[in-house]
Design brief:
The complex is a heterotrimer of chains A (308), B (592) and C (410).
Chain A (H helix, E strand, L loop, with lengths): L1 H31 L6 H19 L2 H5 L1 H28 L8 H21 L7 E2 L8 E4 L5 E4 H23 L1 H11 L1 H6 L4 H27 L1 E2 L3 H16 L4 H21 L7 H15 L14
Antiparallel strand pairs in A: 1-4, 2-3
Helix pairs in contact in A: 1-6, 1-9, 1-10, 1-11, 2-4, 2-5, 2-9, 2-10, 4-9, 6-7, 6-9, 7-9, 10-11, 10-12, 11-12
Chain B lengths: L23 H7 L3 H17 L29 H18 L5 H27 L7 E2 L2 E2 L2 H18 L14 H24 L11 H21 L2 H11 L1 H13 L9 H26 L8 H14 L13 H20 L7 H20 L19 E2 L2 E2 L4 E3 L2 E3 L3 H22 L2 H11 L1 H6 L4 H27 L9 H14 L4 H17 L7 H15 L8 H7 L22
Antiparallel strand pairs in B: 1-2, 3-4, 5-6
Helix pairs in contact in B: 1-5, 2-3, 2-5, 3-4, 3-7, 4-5, 4-7, 6-9, 10-14, 10-17, 10-18, 10-19, 11-12, 11-17, 12-17, 14-17, 15-17, 18-19
Chain C lengths: L2 H22 L18 E9 L6 H20 L6 E9 L4 H12 L4 E6 L3 H13 L3 E4 L6 H4 L14 E3 L4 H15 L4 E6 L3 H16 L3 E7 L8 H7 L6 E5 L2 H13 L6 E3 L18 E5 L7 H13 L9 H19 L8 H10 L3 E3 L2 E3 L11 E8 L2 E9 L4
Parallel strand pairs in C: 1-2, 1-3, 3-4, 4-5, 6-7, 6-8, 8-9, 9-10
Antiparallel strand pairs in C: 10-13, 11-12, 13-14
Helix pairs in contact in C: 2-11, 3-4, 6-7, 11-12
Classes of the chains: A mainly alpha (308), B mainly alpha (592), C alpha/beta (410).
């Protein structure tokens, strides 16, 4: 029983991380129907941005006290990720706005490879994994069931921050003018333009918000797992895309639910399904394939025509 | 959109050129001086070729007795980049003075070649010499060769542009058939020699030979300039038309030329190995071309089929590590690999029938990752997991192992030449299959599905089975290549088939030109030869690769040898061709 | 834009992008100034090197390359090979077999190449060994652990050496794994051990050998799991292992995974020691999460007791390389020195030519020099005879040696 609950806890923590990244995927797809392959790398860049701030910019005294270091690192990671995301949109995707589907996809692949390698070549020491400090209180909550279910405080932080940010994003999209502009642009770009919305600025905003969320996720991930490496973006990016599709791409609530489901699938699948942990992420791919084949609009998506 | 003439063009008094669009003012002002400007540019280039290029001789590097910049200090050697600059410069002068149709376009091509040769070599000297002083003046020595040549190139391009770019002429000469045959023979032989020259230029790079990379790049730049000029003059287009007229003959001659590569100076064991690997990837890329180029189904996990073919072959070829301990003859193994890979292709294809576009790409990526993970975990003990399946026996026909050197008469061919011949034949077969498919009913059905799936279904095409057929046939071709790969490399490991390889394959198809037969081969060649020739940049290889992908999709998404449909679909409209229609014409530059 | 322009632009762009990369290249100046005092009249001999220099394993490969470079520079300064200068030619194999084959073919067609140091992955070695053997070029690997490379396909039952030119300074798992088992089970008294590995040749082989020996000694293997080489989140594996109540974890793999794994074990409430092989011994192990009390085995005697090891570490740090020497640096340094020593013995005061290659192979086979891990010599299969292993334990943040011994079959 305690194993089951432990795996649930693990799944929720991982899932909330995936949800944060998935939000970026889902928003970008909703607004310009592009799968931003490089979004996983934005997540990685945010983590490294936070690490760079902690290692090179902050004095050691500040960097080791968590209530200073944590918000600074989060903001730094979000900023760096946001900058990279906006630059990516401006230079790689905007010129291809009207090109057939293949061009932006390949460009995204190219950007993903280039970002990963740029980090490997230019960030000192990034050829191997780099240690990342824990930016929260050490220790864990131990629930006395069976052998004890252990949930670390940092894990709880991750879940809480993700849910708060997701909720905040939904509020933003539903209630504010800018959010309405985003929804309008995603429905029909030309009509939105007629309504006085500048779609370019809205798209930049979308990328910026998605990037910031991914950056926060990156810093929290590093904090939870205590290290970062340049490969962390690729796999988590695919999980996040799966989550976004699962929940219904373009749907914020769907992305969060999808993320949590994916996290649980990975944890429980590794525990109970044949092949063990070696095949745990294979199950996520299986879920992806099944969802795309049988219900491409996801849990919360509208049953519209399948997009070409 | 291009002017057609039925005879070699009579000199036409050029209509006054009016530029519109960007830089119009400057270009219009320079237009009357175009001819003089071009001649000056050519003269400067030739002059620059004979000045000194580097101000000092360095004594660093692993071989101080062979100072790193000596190549640039020999004053009167006429070889390598100096030769290229001389030839290109003289060509510029000649073309500028004569009344040749499309002369400005030709000169611009030549000028670009000159510019890049000068730029490449100059940059190399700056980097090795540690600063700009290396190509200007330092410690009392002057060496402005690089600067002069660069200026010459830029001046040439500028004035050629100012002179007004004519449309590319289309020649319709017809010679008697035997003359055309001889012409084709000569041209393809020249191409063969050029390819051999490019491959071996600079010698084998290494610590003993630090110039190899820059010599190779410089040669490429010079050849690109010459190529652009020939293209601009319309001669290349004419040769293409002639070879179309005698298609069977052209194909035969090309095949013979490819088989003759081991006899040229690129016939070393090293290049036989590289060429064999290129062949494997080219065959796979052609298979991918069916899936992506013809049927428009984005596949990001394609290398898995190559892997499946390779593992099947490894298991059936009597390698000690395989659990199926049988040793079948090579041809049978190829057929079995192909069939098994095809089956997996159909399996992958079936669930994706309802999925389109980007989603399809992700699903195929997922399948590719499942394959890698399963292979890594030694699923069914068929893949050897992390230990791989090593020591696959070499292919042997009549007791002659393929990796040995053979002697024909007095000529000793390098080892691995038999693999090379086999892969050339394999690629030819694959190309034949592809060519036949493309123009068959099936191929047309695929193209219809690619253009608009719903319309195709409305026309009565059964899209489901046809899409599965695309996957199946593509996978079969990959499986065929995989069997060859297993024997050539001797070991099949899961890490040869990771996601990055799929991206590379897709890039090869796109870079070369989607939907065209030579495109995939060209793309695979470029993506294999460049990292081999430029091994000193191996640290930055992937970074350059990523950036190159971005740039190519931005500026030339239809690839180097574009398919006509794709070009119309992907390229912008051609403003140059409508620029000369008078006052009501469209502007020179069209905003995308 | 017209077609010509597109073609020219493409060509220009391609060349331009490539040219841009030339700006970024800054070849490190090898300190050859001091070599001016050596007689290099007979020319240059090339030490080849094949390992992954780009991609995900580049951290290990670059550390190996730097170590070889250090050895070559030291040899040049000491005029090790009379009349010749040594130069390092490093080729990237992208950790894929077919590129390794190309690299090996390239090196083997250069008559100045005396030997090749490499590779890292066993699968790439499978391709390069026959190619180099055909040209009688010595290959010394500091990192391959697959037994079939030296003992043939039937290594367990009928070992026979496939390539007379292939040697390695790395111990096979057949020694390190059981040695660790003997320590953990007999000396530390652990009875319920969870075995985890990263699925790669080195880790999986090591873990398998450990498990076999541990079972023979009476311990129970309560769990046998795999993690991905790029994984950083082990909560799934740990939650799976926890109910089995292990009292130790044995990990086959390298430190980037071992460190976080150790930390996450503790986080989950499993305060049991983690033990690994030489792949986890690295100074960043504790930064990445390794805890006090973790164990590891390493090849040879502790460096503190060996002047040669300390000399290597000091020299490496003084040389100022961008990357640390990582897990295989010391072994690579040894391999390079074996080759250089063999070359200097073969050349003597004469010249090096194709005919000297056979002599070089014998010279390497007969090597007996002092390396960073102790005395180096090779047995009839080309494996190192150094069966000395040391158990380390993390104390005060670093791996400190606990006990040294030779492996004896139980």
């Amino acid at each position: 029983m305690s194993t089951f609950l432990s795996q649930i806890a693990n799944g929720l923590v991982l899932g909330s991380l995936i949800a944060l990244i998935a939000l970026g995927y889902t928003m970008v797809y909703g607004i310009i129907t592009l799968i931003n392959f490089a979004h996983g790398e934005i997540f990685m860049v945010g983590a490294y941005g936070g690490l760079a701030t902690l290692t090179y910019i902050l004095p050691t005294a500040v960097a080791t006290t968590w209530y200073f270091a944590l918000p600074i690192a989060l903001v730094a990671g979000a900023l760096v990720a946001m900058l990279v995301a906006v630059a990516m949109e401006r230079f790689a995707y905007r010129p291809l706005r009207n090109a057939p589907r293949l061009a932006p996809l390949i460009t995204a692949l190219g950007v993903s490879v280039a970002l990963q390698e740029a980090m490997r070549v230019f960030y000192p020491g990034a050829t191997a994994a780099l240690p990342f400090p824990n930016l929260f209180i050490e220790g864990a909550v131990v629930i006395p069931i069976g052998d004890g279910v252990v949930i670390r405080y940092t894990g709880i932080l991750l879940i809480v921050v993700s849910l708060v940010l997701a909720f905040g994003l939904e509020r933003f999209v539903e209630r504010t003018r800018l959010g309405r502009a985003m929804r309008a642009t995603s429905q029909d770009r030309d009509v939105a333009r007629l309504m006085g919305i500048d779609p370019d600025r809205v798209i930049v905003l979308t990328f910026a918000i998605g990037g910031a969320l991914a950056g926060v996720a990156g810093v929290l991930y590093g904090s939870y797992l205590r290290n970062v490496n340049i490969d962390m973006g690729f796999q988590n990016g695919i999980f996040a895309f799966t989550a976004a599709v699962l929940g219904g791409i373009g749907n914020i609530r769907g992305a969060v639910v999808g993320g949590l489901v994916i996290g649980l699938v990975k944890a429980l699948g590794g525990q109970y399904l044949p092949g063990g942990t070696a095949y745990d992420y294979v199950w996520i791919f299986v879920v992806l394939i099944v969802v795309l084949v049988f219900r491409p609009q996801g849990f919360f998506g509208e049953s519209e025509r399948v997009r070409a | 959109m291009t002017a057609t003439r039925t005879a070699p063009a009579e000199p036409v008094a050029p209509a006054p050129v009016r530029h519109t669009g960007r830089n119009a003012g400057m270009l219009n002002a320079l237009a009357p001086f175009a001819k003089i400007g071009m001649v000056v540019g050519g003269v400067l280039s030739v002059l620059g070729a004979y000045l000194a290029w580097s101000t000092f001789v360095l004594n660093k590097g692993a071989f101080p007795e062979r100072s790193t910049l000596t190549m640039f200090v020999e004053p009167l050697g006429v070889s390598g980049y100096r030769l290229h600059l001389t030839v290109l410069g003289i060509a510029v002068i000649v073309v500028a003075l004569l009344r040749i149709p499309a002369r400005h376009r030709i000169v611009r091509g030549l000028g670009l070649g000159i510019t890049f040769v000068a730029l490449l070599n100059g940059l190399w000297i700056i980097v090795e010499g540690g600063g700009f002083g290396a190509i200007t003046a330092s410690d009392g020595t002057v060496a402005f060769g690089a600067v002069v040549a660069l200026v010459g190139g830029l001046v040439t391009v500028l004035f050629a542009q100012a002179g007004g770019l004519e449309p590319r002429p289309e020649w319709t000469w017809r010679l008697p058939w035997w003359a055309e045959w001889i012409l084709l023979l000569v041209i393809f032989a020249i191409v063969l020699l050029l390819v051999a020259e490019v491959l071996t230029s600079g010698g084998q790079g290494g610590v003993v030979n630090p110039y190899a990379g820059v010599v190779f790049l410089s040669l490429l730049a010079a050849l690109a300039g010459a190529f652009a000029a020939l293209n601009a003059s319309g001669l290349l287009g004419w040769v293409a038309v002639v070879s179309e007229r005698h298609r069977v003959f052209s194909v035969v001659v090309l095949l013979v030329c490819a088989l003759a590569l081991p006899f040229t100076n690129a016939g070393t064991e090293y290049w036989m190995t590289v060429a064999s690997n290129i062949g494997v990837y080219a065959a796979t890329a052609i298979g991918l071309n069916i899936v992506v180029g013809l049927a428009g189904l984005l596949d990001l996990g394609y290398v898995a089929f190559l892997g499946i073919g390779a593992f099947v072959a490894a298991n059936l070829s009597g390698a000690a590590a395989s659990v199926i301990g049988i040793h079948l003859p090579f041809l049978l193994v190829m057929v079995i690999s192909s069939v098994v890979a095809g089956m997996f292709g159909a399996i992958v294809g079936s669930p994706t029938l309802r999925v389109r576009g980007d989603y399809l790409a992700i699903v195929t990526l997922a399948f590719g990752e499942i394959f890698v993970r399963s292979a890594q975990n030694n699923i069914g003990s068929l893949t050897g997991g992390a230990n791989a399946i090593p020591n696959i026996p070499q292919v042997a026909i009549g007791g002659l192992a393929f990796n040995e050197s053979i002697t024909i008469g007095a000529v000793r061919l390098p080892s691995g030449v038999l693999y090379y011949i086999a892969i050339v034949l394999l690629v030819s077969v694959v190309m034949l299959v592809f060519g036949n498919l493309k123009y068959s009913r099936l191929g047309r059905a695929w193209i219809a599905i690619r253009e608009d799936e719903d319309a195709a279904a409305a026309m009565g095409i059964r899209t489901g089975p046809i899409k599965i057929l695309a996957f199946l046939i593509g996978a079969m071709l990959a499986g065929l290549a995989g069997a060859f790969f297993a024997h050539k490399t001797g070991v099949v490991a899961y890490d040869s088939f990771r996601f990055l390889e799929s991206v590379t394959l897709l890039s090869a198809v796109i870079l070369g030109g989607m939907g065209t037969i030579p495109g995939a081969v060209l793309g695979a060649s470029i993506l294999f030869v460049l990292p081999e020739k430029l091994r000193e940049f191996s640290d930055y290889r992937l970074l350059i690769f990523g950036l190159a992908l971005v740039l190519i999709m931005r500026f030339r998404p239809q690839g180097i040898i574009p398919d006509r449909h794709r070009k119309a679909e992907l390229a912008d409209t051609d403003p140059e061709d409508v620029a000369r229609e008078g006052p009501g014409a469209l502007p020179t530059e069209v905003e995308p | 834009m017209s077609r010509t322009r597109k073609v020219a632009t493409t060509a220009a762009l391609l060349a331009g992008v490539l040219a841009l990369s030339a700006c970024g290249t800054n070849r490190a100046e090898s300190p050859s100034g001091g070599g001016g005092s050596c007689d290099t009249s007979k020319g240059t001999l090339v030490v080849g090197f094949i390992a992954p220099l780009s991609g995900s394993l580049s951290a290990l490969g670059l550390g190996m390359k730097n170590s070889t470079d250090l050895a070559v520079n030291q040899a040049n300064q000491a005029c090790k090979v009379p009349g010749y200068r040594l130069a390092l030619q490093a080729e990237d194999d992208q950790s894929t077999a077919q590129i390794a084959g190309q690299a090996a073919t390239k090196l083997s067609s250069d008559p100045n190449v005396v030997g090749v140091i490499g590779t890292l992955n066993s699968s790439t070695a499978q391709t390069t060994a026959p190619i180099l053997a055909q040209k009688k070029i010595v290959q010394i690997s500091p990192a391959n652990t697959n037994p079939s490379l030296t003992q043939g396909d039937n290594y367990a039952t009928a070992p026979s050496r496939p390539n007379a030119t292939y040697f390695r300074t790395a111990t096979t798992d057949a020694i390190q794994g059981p040695f660790a088992a003997q320590f953990l089970v007999q000396k530390q008294g652990k009875k319920a051990i969870a075995v985890i590995d990263d699925g790669k040749t080195y880790g999986a082989g090591l873990a398998a050998q450990f498990a076999a020996e541990a079972k023979k000694l009476g311990a129970t293997i309560v769990a046998q799991e795999k993690v991905g080489e790029k994984d950083t989140d082990f909560s799934g594996v740990i939650a799976k292992v926890r109910p089995a109540n292990p009292d130790a974890v044995y990990y086959g793999g390298e430190y980037p995974v071992a460190g976080p794994l150790s930390k996450q074990l503790a986080d989950a409430g499993l305060n049991i020691p983690l033990m690994g092989g030489d792949g986890i011994v690295d100074k960043t192990y504790t930064q990445l999460g390794g805890r006090e009390g973790d164990f590891a085995t390493n090849v040879g005697a502790p460096p503190e007791q060996l002047a040669s090891a300390k000399a290597f570490i000091d020299a490496y740090n003084a040389a100022g390389y961008k990357e640390p020497y990582s897990a295989y640096g010391a072994l690579t340094y040894d391999a390079a020195n074996v080759l250089i020593d063999g070359v200097s013995k073969t050349v003597g005061n004469g010249t090096f030519s194709d005919a000297s290659r056979a002599g070089l192979i014998s010279a390497v086979q007969a090597t007996n020099i002092q390396g960073t891990t102790g005395a180096i010599s090779f047995d009839q299969f080309g494996d190192t005879t150094n069966k000395v292993l040391t158990v380390y334990q993390v104390k005060g943040g670093t791996f400190t040696p606990l006990e040294t011994g030779s492996y004896k079959a139980s």
